[in-house]
Every structure is written in C-alpha cells, then in structure tokens.
Amino acid sequence: MIRWHIIIHGRVQGVGFRAFTQQHAKMHNIKGSVQNKLNGTVEIDAQGKKKDMRSFISAIKKGTPFAKVTDIEIAEIGTLKNDQSFNIVY
C-alpha cells in the first residue's frame, strides 16, 4: 500500500476533472481526495496498491475531453489506516 500527494497542472478546473478523478479512483480501488486549488491546479491525495496507483495515474494523465494536463507532480507520503473512500473536497 502506498500513498501519493499529486499536483495536476494545466487546464484542469471547470472541466469536470475532479468528478473524472473520483470516478477513476473508484474504478481502481483508490482511497483519498481531490480538490481545486486557488492557483489553478488540482491536488490529489491517493492511496492504494502500487499497480492500481499506476493505472490510476495513467487514466488521469488523459483527463476529460476538455482538460489539458501539462504536468503532474507526485510525492510519496505516509499511508492512512482509516481512509475508506475517495472524496471531492469543495
């Protein structure tokens, strides 16, 4: 089990990116959260099996039809024992 702090750069706000991310997190059994940041990025904390996390990252790199991902920053962080879902933070 691993947990990553992910920052997505590009045209990723106002294009359904958070809901898209949540949908793919559920498909890949990923727990955590996604939220828009004031600087125009999207921030994701994601936890799951390494294989599932790689598949999840591949999916979100593509984004929604109206999104344009230009860069992804990934940093490994400590896992959380009680993370049971994947939520959109407003």
TrEMBL record:
SUPFAM superfamilies found in the cross-reference section: Acylphosphatase/BLUF domain-like
InterPro entries on file: Acylphosphatase, Acylphosphatase-like_dom, Acylphosphatase-like_dom_sf, Acylphosphatase_CS
Acylphosphatase-like domain residues: 3-90
Gene3D superfamilies: 3.30.70.100
Record keywords: Hydrolase
EC number: 3.6.1.7
PROSITE patterns recorded: ACYLPHOSPHATASE_1, ACYLPHOSPHATASE_3
Family: Belongs to the acylphosphatase family.
UniProt-recorded name of the protein: acylphosphatase
Taxonomic path: Bacteria, Bacillati, Bacillota, Bacilli, Bacillales
